[in-house]
């Protein structure tokens, strides 16, 4: 019982952390705060909920349709690991070197685009979801996704308080650290993909 419990906790964290890094809530917060400047609190809460629901819906569709997409395109999980790893690496380097993002105008669907996607769930997160599902299974990935989106919801809900505690510069610094971890995960994915092809 004890071994099963601790083994489950270890697996959960091994799934949770890469997805947390890929979602990069610290990188999203400064953008969110800039977009929400002057927006009334009730509307902010509606936008946050809209964004979380959108991110979850897109992620679940991608999670369960991933293997079908593989079959349709005639690619393997190892092919996707390498391709996804390259994409993640480019995104991480872009985040490290060119992190300034243009301010966006608010619309009625701002919670869907750009907050839900691509800010919360973008190419990096979708690629990571497919990789984690293939390696650890859909149940662990789904549980990790729910927990990560809850963290995002809490962070956005209390973004103003967090900004006072960390300052915008502090959040940007954390985002740089997260981007470094994202680059490391990208290299790991490429390595696993190459090893998989060599051993197949």
Q: Would you write up a description of this structure?
A:
This protein has one domain (2-22, 40-199). Helices cover 86% and strands 0% of the residues. It has eight helices and no strands. The longest helix has 41 residues, at 159-199. The relative contact order is 0.21.
Concise overview:
This protein is 86% helix and 0% strand. The chain is built from 8 helices and no strands. The longest helix is centred in the C-terminal third of the chain and has 41 residues, at 159-199.
Keywords:
mainly alpha; 200 residues; 8 helices; 0% strand; 86% helix
Q: Helical proportion?
A: over 70%
Give the averaged pLDDT, no decimals.
82
Distance between the termini: 35 Å
Classify the beta-strand content into a percent band.
under 5%
**Backbone structural class:** mainly alpha
DSSP helix count?
8
* Backbone shape: globular
Number of folding domains? 1
Low-confidence stretches: none
Number of strands: 0
Compile the SSE list and pairings.
Layout: H1 2-23, H2 25-35, H3 41-73, H4 77-97, H5 111-120, H6 123-136, H7 138-157, H8 159-199
Helix pairs in contact: 1-6, 1-7, 2-7, 2-8, 3-5, 3-6, 3-7, 4-6, 4-8, 6-7
């Amino acid at each position: 019982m004890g071994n099963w419990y601790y083994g489950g906790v270890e697996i959960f964290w091994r799934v949770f952390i890469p997805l947390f890094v890929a979602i990069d809530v610290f990188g999203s917060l400064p953008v969110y705060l800039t977009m929400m400047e002057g927006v009334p609190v009730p509307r902010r809460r509606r936008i946050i909920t809209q964004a979380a629901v959108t991110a979850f819906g897109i992620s679940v569709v991608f999670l369960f349709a991933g293997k079908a997409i593989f079959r349709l395109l005639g690619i393997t999980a190892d092919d996707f690991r390498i391709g996804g790893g390259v994409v993640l690496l480019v995104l991480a380097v872009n985040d490290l070197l060119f992190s300034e993002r243009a301010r966006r105008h608010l619309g009625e669907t701002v919670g869907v685009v750009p907050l839900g996607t691509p800010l919360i769930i973008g190419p990096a997160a979708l690629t990571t979801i497919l990789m984690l599902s293939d390696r650890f299974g859909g149940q662990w990935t789904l549980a990790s996704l729910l927990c990560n989106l809850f963290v995002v919801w809490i962070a956005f809900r209390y973004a103003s308080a967090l900004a006072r505690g960390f300052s915008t510069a502090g959040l940007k610094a954390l985002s740089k650290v997260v981007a470094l971890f994202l680059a490391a995960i990208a290299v790991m994915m490429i390595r696993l993909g190459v090893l998989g092809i060599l051993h197949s």
